Amino acid sequence: MNQNEFLAKVTPVQDRLYRLAKRLLVSEDEAQDATQEVLIKLWSNRKKIKKLRSVEAFAVTMTKNYCYDKLKAKSSSNLQLVHTNYEDQHYNTVKTSENSDSVNWVLKLMKDLPEQQRLVLHMRDVEQYTNSEIAEELDLNETAVRVTLSRARKTIREQLLKKHNYGLK
Amino acid sequence: MDLNKIENLLELYFEGETSLKQEAQLQEYFTSDEVAPHLAEYVPIFDAFAKAKETGFNRTLELPETKRSYKWIPVAASILLCIGLFLTYNQKQGSANDLGTYKDPEVAALKTKQALFMMGSFMNKGTGQLEKLETFEETANQIKK
């Protein structure tokens, strides 16, 4: 496999890998690093890739594991990056700004979900994977995926409505 | 789209029971401009998913140059060595089968002569030893008498 063939295979996938990494690592820079790292690993494993049924599933697993390792290293070294996306609440008058503010709020809520729920919600609602694909990727059965998904969505809804009502009162 | 249907789908959505196709319908409805007021609070959820999908990997990938692998060289060397050993061994065995026939009759005759002379001289050595037997016989005869 030469560079061009490899890039043709990998380019459609790389944005998804990045978004997955970002969902897990939160920081954009780290996510870019992770994606780059995974793509280079894929390149050095390109002979293996040729035989694979789906490069994407393989790459997603690699990205997920890479991010987990990163997170583990981070928590063990006790270094925590806190990313706050709170925006200034004073400019809530215009409806559009309120909307984009709520969007950011939802994205923040997603970050606060437990890892498993976050992954499942991301894979399903952002990347539109099927439940069976998610199940295979995360080593769960499909019922568990559905339950996790439902929980994640309900949590988002609850938190969002809470904030909404709080804003009104 | 029918409001009832959307409400139904939304209910199923939170139970995790919607199909990808139905979720696409919801996504389409909630990112459109005609969301019913009482459903407006769900808009940010679907907007957030759409927004999350906009980002992507934006670095140019620099793939490391492929190094030529020299792994096969020791393998090739050992195979060559084996072939070499095999051939030389076979050659030695072949020399055992070689009868050493001379092509040139003159040389052959000469060599045969040499060989025969050698044999003759060995035989003479043998007969020389036989003379001692005569003294043995003489003494034996003396004792018999």
From TrEMBL, chain A:
Gene3D superfamilies membership: 1.10.1740.10, Winged helix-like DNA-binding domain superfamily/Winged helix DNA-binding domain
This protein's UniProt keywords: DNA-binding, Sigma factor, Transcription, Transcription regulation
GO biological process per UniProt: DNA-templated transcription initiation
Residue span(s) of domain RNA polymerase sigma factor 70 region 4 type: 105-155
One GO molecular-function entry: DNA binding
Entry keyword Aminoacyl-tRNA synthetase: no
Residue ranges constituting the RNA polymerase sigma-70 region domain according to the UniProt record: 13-75
Parts of the chain that traverse the membrane: none
Keyword match Chaperone: no
NCBIfam families, per the entry: sigma70-ECF
Family label: Belongs to the sigma-70 factor family. ECF subfamily.
Record protein name field: RNA polymerase sigma-70 factor (ECF subfamily)
Species name: Leeuwenhoekiella aestuarii
Source lineage: Bacteria, Pseudomonadati, Bacteroidota, Flavobacteriia, Flavobacteriales
TrEMBL record, chain B:
Domain of life: Bacteria
Protein name: Anti-sigma factor
Originating species: Leeuwenhoekiella marinoflava DSM 3653
